[in-house]
Structure formats: structure tokens, C-alpha cells
From TrEMBL:
The chain crosses the membrane at residues 16-35, 106-123, 135-158, 227-248, 260-282, 294-312, 324-349, 361-384, 390-409. It is a multi-pass membrane protein. Residues 1-414 form the Major facilitator superfamily (MFS) profile domain. The keyword Transcription regulation does not apply. GO terms for molecular function: carbohydrate:proton symporter activity. It is found in: Membrane. GO terms for cellular component: membrane. PROSITE patterns: MFS, SUGAR_TRANSPORT_1, SUGAR_TRANSPORT_2. Keywords: Membrane, Transmembrane, Transmembrane helix, Transport. This is Putative transporter. InterPro entries: MFS_dom, MFS_sugar_transport-like, MFS_Sugar_Transporters, MFS_trans_sf, Sugar/inositol_transpt, Sugar_transporter_CS. Pfam families: Sugar_tr.
């Protein structure tokens, strides 16, 4: 936005990347505090506290005077600290208040509002850029301050997570909270049954404090889940999604849209597309499954990034058809991401953890996500200035790596109880995948039992082992 650049003087790519990424680095650090804090003072209060810190940072950005880039960046860092506290906590809270059969849909509902916020941000900037004064860039910060204040106040009106209440020994209040959430007593008891055997370990972790909370993430029974969650959350951002969202005007200009207005409008269209494809994801998320969505979505994400890189490397974008193809592939990328990784990976990284480690593991995974996010946000303008194709090849390669890892190491988690999830992580996901593709490979008894786990979670699909080849 030209008014922003005039206010803070000329911004070269390095400063541009620093401004965008500063909020992310602070968020990655404070997200490590958010998990243990949410275990101590509750999910809702941590969300409210983080929102207030975010508002304070945005107010500092709003009030920065001409040439005070350092003040502006400091405000971004404070806002990032607030985001670090509340964003991963929102994921944890959403999963804990949702009955098993709708937790996917509820998580996608949160993502739907995220996409609405992204689109609103694009169009707010598209409208405010028409102003000739500093208010062209200040108005979006006013909107963020209002939104953050509403979240801070609203979070305090929400019921506590029933699972957190039981975790801290307030069982009667947990029953009341389930009632406020509209969950029947019978259904609430069913939801809590899976956590009963974990209660002693929960008490041990709670009593020993912060050090034991983090140590619990690396115990033998959960460390595989911790590593997988951190890997998925980190590498999902290495797909380049935030590079596309943050620098959409720059990317569309590079692809041939000449005017600033056209670039901002195209960015707004990406926001609308994001909303549109999130709606069917909301409807079918609990039917598609986590593992198939991650792998199939990853194929689309990797393919679109690699094709864009190939078009730039071969100079096919010198022709009008090549530029149109790049713009189309950016939309293919966004659709693939919005219908898969945008929701599935965040939910998966949290739901595979037992209650005693869920908040801390979600915070650690979110920290990994933000660290990679910071690297992408800071380096993308610098990388694009040196090479038009390199970033896309890097993003596509990282996405392909996620697909390979998920094929070999990601068991399905949708609708599976805690006990059965333990068994799922003892299995071999790639065996089931290969035997599904090659019927002549007869499953052994362990594979049949693992399929029974998933069939129990999906009564509409009874386990059937393939007949032996005669």
C-alpha cells in the first residue's frame, strides 16, 4: 500500500519481510507459554488474556508516527505474543468441547470464520487504499482492535472446557459445563470414558508443574505423536500457503496483473474462493477422514506449486497463456489447501494427544508452525527478487515430503477413542495402504485387528479381510 510506504519511507524487500514476519516470531515463542498457561488458568481465560495483549500491540501499531518503523515492529511483536497465547488455545478448546462425532465439523467451522476474516481483511484494504491519508493503512488496524476486544470479552462468557475442569478435579462443574454446551449426560459420560485410564498420569503431570508438562511430551507412549504433530504443523506452512496469502498482490502482479487495484481485487477473490471451498469441507470433514484428506490434498498442493515453478523456469510466463496458467494454479493450490491441510493437520496434531499433553503439544506444534511461517514470510520477497521459480520448487518439494511421511507414518484418527488410538499408533499405516491397493497381499491378524479399530469408529463399514488368492 503506497500510503504505508510513504509513512515509513521506502521499504526494500528485507524490511518488507521483517514487518510481515515479526508478528510470527513473537507468536512462536509465546505459544510455548500458552499451553501450560491454559492448563493452569483455563482455556477461556488464556484466550481472553492473549486477546488483550494482541489489542495492546495493534494499538501501538495504530499510533506509530511517521518514520517510527521500530515502534511499529515492536507493536507487531506484542500482537504476536498475544496470538501465541490464544491461537493454539482456541484449537485445544474447540476439540475439547466437541463430541467425537462432530469434532471435525466444529473445527472446520472455526476455519470457516478464519477464511471469512482473511477475505474481510483483503476487502478492507481494497477499500481503504482509496483514501489519500494515513488512514488508508490505519483503518485495518482499527478493525483488528475491535475484533480482538470482542474476542477478549466474549471468551470470558464461554463455559470452561469440561475436559479441563475434570482434569483439574472439578468434576461437578464439568457436568454443568457439558449441559451449557448442549451435550446430554449420557453423551458426556461416553466422551469422558476414554480419558479415565489417563487420570493418574494427568494428576502426576499437574502436580509436578511446567517441567513435567513438557517432559510428558517425550515419553515413550506419546513421543511419536508429538514428533508427527510438530512435523506436520511445521511442514504444512512450508507448502507456501502463507507466502501466497501474505504476498498475494505481489504474486498476482508478478503473474501479469499490472495495477495495484487489480492485484488487491484478485487477492480478495482468493479470500472468497477460500470461503466457498471451506463450506463443503465443513459438511463432509467427518466422512472424508484425516489421513486420506492429508495425502490427497498434499498431492494437489505439491503438484500446483511444482507446475508454477516449471512455468516460470521455462519462461512460459512470457506469454499471456502462461500468466493465466499461473493465476489458475494459485487458485488450485488454495482450493487444495483449504479443503485439506488448512483444517485436518491442525485438528490431527491436537486430537492424537491424550488429555495430559494436549495443550502443551498443541502449543509446541503451533510454535513449529509459526517458526516456519516466519521463515516463509521473511524470505519470500527476498527469494522472489532473486528467482521467480525457486520458491515454488521449494514449496512443492516440502509438500511432497509431507505426502510421503503421511503415507508411511500417519494412522487414521477420525472418530477413534483414546484407547484405540494407542493401538492405531502401534500399527503400520503403509501396510494397510499397500494391501488396499494390491489385493493379493493378504493382511495378517494384526492388520485385521487394526481395521476393526477403524470399523468400530465407523459402524457403516464393517471390517472385511480380502480373500486369499488360490
Amino acid at each position: 500500500m503506497s500510503q504505508f510506504e510513504d509513512h515509513f519511507e521506502h521499504l526494500e524487500p528485507a524490511k518488507h519481510g521483517l514487518i510481515v514476519s515479526s508478528i510470527l516470531l513473537a507468536a512462536s515463542v509465546f505459544s510455548l507459554v500458552g499451553g501450560p498457561l491454559a492448563d493452569r488458568i483455563s482455556r477461556t481465560r488464556t484466550i481472553a488474556l492473549g486477546s488483550l495483549v494482541f489489542v495492546a500491540g495493534e494499538a501501538m501499531c495504530l499510533g506509530s508516527q511517521r518514520g517510527q518503523l521500530g515502534v511499529f515492529i515492536a507493536g507487531r511483536c506484542i500482537a504476536g505474543a498475544g496470538e501465541g497465547l490464544f491461537l493454539s488455545t482456541i484449537t485445544t478448546y474447540t476439540l475439547e468441547i466437541a463430541p467425537t462425532h462432530i469434532r471435525g465439523r466444529l473445527s472446520v467451522t472455526v476455519q470457516l470464520f478464519v477464511t471469512v476474516g482473511i477475505a474481510a481483511g483483503y476487502f478492507t484494504c481494497f477499500g481503504s487504499q482509496r483514501l489519500d491519508s494515513d488512514w488508508a493503512w490505519r483503518i485495518p488496524y482499527v478493525v483488528q482492535i475491535i475484533s480482538g476486544s470482542i474476542l477478549a470479552c466474549g471468551a470470558l462468557l464461554l463455559p470452561h472446557s469440561p475436559r479441563w475442569l475434570k482434569h483439574v478435579g472439578r468434576a461437578r462443574e464439568a457436568q454443568v459445563a457439558w449441559g451449557r454446551l448442549g451435550v446430554s449426560l449420557a453423551e458426556a459420560e461416553k466422551e469422558e470414558e476414554a480419558a479415565e485410564r489417563d487420570e493418574q498420569l494427568q494428576a502426576t503431570t499437574r502436580d509436578k508443574g511446567l517441567k513435567e508438562t513438557w517432559a510428558a511430551l517425550w515419553r515413550k507412549d506419546v513421543r511419536t505423536r508429538t514428533i508427527l504433530g510438530v512435523f506436520l504443523m511445521g511442514l504444512s506452512n512450508a507448502s507456501g500457503v502463507d507466502g501466497v496469502l501474505y504476498y498475494a498482490p505481489l504474486l498476482f502482479s508478478q503473474a501479469g496483473l499490472s495495477s495495484t487495484t487489480a492485484s488487491f481485487l484478485a487477492s480478495g477473490v482468493t479470500g472468497l474462493v477460500n470461503i466457498a471451498v471451506t463450506i463443503p469441507t465443513l459438511m463432509y470433514s467427518d466422512k472424508w477422514g484425516r489421513r486420506p484428506s492429508t495425502i490427497r490434498g498434499g498431492v494437489g498442493i505439491a503438484a500446483s506449486m511444482l507446475l508454477i515453478g516449471t512455468l516460470y523456469a521455462s519462461r512460459a510466463t512470457d506469454a499471456k497463456a502462461g500468466k493465466i496458467a499461473v493465476i489458475a494454479l494459485i487458485f488450485v493450490f488454495l482450493v487444495s489447501f483449504a479443503m485439506s491441510w488448512a483444517v485436518v493437520i491442525r485438528v490431527y496434531a491436537s486430537e492424537i494427544q491424550p488429555m495430559r499433553t494436549r495443550a502443551a503439544a498443541t502449543a509446541l506444534s503451533q510454535a513449529a508452525n509459526w517458526i516456519v511461517n516466519w521463515l516463509v514470510a521473511f524470505s519470500t520477497p527476498l527469494f522472489l527478487a532473486k528467482s521467480s521459480s525457486g520458491p515454488y520448487f521449494l514449496f512443492g518439494g516440502c509438500s511432497l515430503a509431507v505426502v510421503v511421511v503421511c503415507f508411511f507414518f500417519q494412522p487414521e484418527s477420525r472418530g477413534i477413542s483414546l484407547e484405540d488410538l494407542d493401538r492405531a499408533f502401534e500399527g503400520r499405516p503403509w501396510d494397510l495402504s499397500l494391501k488396499g491397493l494390491v489385493p493379493c497381499l493378504r493382511p495378517d491378524q494384526e492388520d485385521i485387528e487394526l481395521r476393526d479399530v477403524h470399523a468400530t469408529a465407523r459402524p457403516d463399514r464393517l471390517p472385511q479381510a480380502p480373500s486369499p488368492v488360490e
